[in-house]
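During the second year of the project, the team shifted from modelling isolated chains to modelling whole assemblies. The rationale, set out in the original proposal, was that interfaces cannot be judged from single-chain predictions alone. As a representative example for this report, we include one of the complexes processed in the last quarter. Its constituent sequences, exactly as entered into the pipeline, are reproduced here:
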Amino acid sequence: MSGQLAKFATNRAFWRGVIAVAVFLVLWEIGARSKQWMTPEFFAPFKALLGAMGFKKDYLPWIGAVPAPSAVLKAWIAVLGQAGYWQSWYMSFFRVMGGFFAAMLIGIPFGLALAVSRVAHGIGFPTFEVLRPIPPLAWVPASIIFWPTQELAITFITFLGAFYTIVINVLGGARSIDVRYFQAAQSMGSSRWDIFRRIILPGTLPSIMVGSAVGMGITWEVVVAAEMISGGGSQQAGTGGGLGFFIWNSYVGGSYEQIVVGMISIGIAGFASSELLRWAGRYATPWLRVR
Amino acid sequence: MDMRPPPPATQTQGHLLIDDVVKVYDPEGAAVLAVDHCTLEIEPGEICMIVGPSGCGKTTLLNAVAGFHDITSGRILMDGEVLCSTDRPRSTPGPDRIVVFQNGALFPWKSNLENVIFGPVMQGKLGRREALDKGRAMMGDAGLSGVEHNYPGEVSSGMRRRVEIVRALMNDPKVLLLDEPYRALDSLTKSVMHEALLEIYYKNRVTIFFITHDLEEAIFLGHRVAIMTTRPCKPKKILTVDIPHPRDYSVLTSKRFRELIEETNDAVHEEALKAFQAGEKEG
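Output from the structure prediction step:
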């Protein structure tokens, strides 16, 4: 572990990343404080143009309208002690994981069936292709009407976010397996089941992992929007309707710092889940590590 | 032209007869004649080299023997048994005819040793433990000790090709079908691989059906060399290589080897030129 840390300390790419984040934060801080330095006269020459574009007098889309990182950090520290904030994390995670695992559980077998069976493909694929372009968020009203609880409705929306990506990746992955592997396995006396288990499954595994990582990213995008639209699910307002609702609630309550806290929280949550999946993917496909 | 196969070797099985085989691709549409009344007999234990320009239809022939493609008419027999014929156009792939593919078809998700034991375990001929023992022993014989637990992606392409040949031999095939297995290798690795293949061959004496477009490779390895016409494919000239086996690399500088090259070079060049011009017309 300490060896790994030492490796990080001497890694150029690592420090480049750290410095980039630091520079971003500094620029943001400067930008946020700039409102105090830039007088309205500064914009006077452009006033007519800006007015024509619909900007109000003295109010410009400047980073100055966004809370500074120092203020965000303060708000964050304040919120860390509140149960509602952690409840939001928990709720969003719960919905993401529920939807995501349901999507894996249904999507992987469905994708494999589409790939190996002409009949399954003929029956399932046209319907799938018609439903696929419908954005998960367009399902929100229908989902709220259909599912008995808001909780299930939101989880269903996140499920849709991951499902299509996983199915498409599994199908594409299984289809792109080199025909020579099938021919070799067949020559060496494999049954159809052997070919499925020993060629199609491992051959599709890299695509399953890629599809899952992409699908996981989409579930986080979707869960936040679904929480905002549906008003945070079955929880009472403010006591943990998920991170999406946390943001919405902060906006309604006028706490702009907390909006940013919620946004960054989602960034961290999404990054952590993707990292976890990447790690699981490397573990599941050791032969790809050697390339 | 001497069309007769050489005197039988010590091997008793692995006799292959390609009898008047025709293959037309897309018979209802473009109707491309790939193989035209091709007849070729290969004796048990013979190394028969098939030489022809790229795209001449020699792989079509190999696929028909292996059971990966249909034939249009004619028949293919192994040890007197009909593999495929006009009535049953596709033979069933089986462990008696194993293909070593052009770009290799080792399963990348299995270790080299797991690849090697795949056949006997699938066929239920050996238990896993016995198969592992036999696999290790055969890999050792082929100079592959130490890479058993590596993935194919971790070893050189020359080694991968050797692993694949060992995997094929683990099935006790009657015929080994090699489809330009050394095409992607550099010439130095290739020369090492040739000697290694012969070494393996002298232990097993399995019938080898070897496709290549490299005339030197063909004459160095083969008992006979069948030079094929370009599309449609059939034997144009069959050369019996009268250099005795076992051979080693010194053969390459021998007078007889040079003479045989000279004797066949024109025929090969003529077909290559035809293939090239045909390609130009198509393009």
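The first strand of chain B starts at residue 16 and ends at 25. The first helix of chain B runs from residue 58 to 66.
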